[in-house]
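Hi everyone,

Forwarding the result from last night's run.
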Amino acid sequence: MPKNLENLKKQAKLILRWHRERYYPVAAGIRAALPRCRDLPDRDILAQSFKLSDAQEMVARQAGFDGWQALKAGIDTMPEADKRQSAGITGTAAQLFVADIKKSCDFFAEKLGFATVFVHGEPPFYAQVKRGRGVLNLRHLDRPVIDPVVRDRDSLLSADMGVDTHDEIRQLFLEFQAKGVTFFQTLRKQPWGASNFIVKDPDGNLLLFAGPGE
């Protein structure tokens, strides 16, 4: 068995375990990969029956195949050079530590225009918010992870998000300004060519938004 197929089998088993453990972030991946789950909320996805074959189908579709058998056939016919290519990363998400999940979700929705993807726990201890391709995971923690004085003094960022054009970064800044957002740094053009600004959330996390300088 090709080594990369073994790795994909392990990935499918991990997805299956996450589903059994009701690990909320896996629901978004299932919804995106499996057409039959496209319109289901996280709660329903995690409550329904989910077998190893479903996890394997999810892995196959994420790799661009119609199903597990098609993926296996594709690997069997793939040139050895292609099999040795490293796996690509299709997305990232920063994790912010916050004192109040609901308050934080409200801030991102009302001030920064993010949508709440999910909120987990009773009381809530984990959530995810998203705007476009920008994804942030929110984790409840009663105390700051970083000394606030050191964070502000050294401009220690908790997240870095970008837009494609100079007009978009200017538009985003004006949008946030109109909503009364607190800026740690207003919009400025940096010596290396980028234009950026930094927002401070209710927990003091510093969020950088950047785009082309012109």
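The first strand starts at residue 94 and ends at 98.

Cheers,
N.
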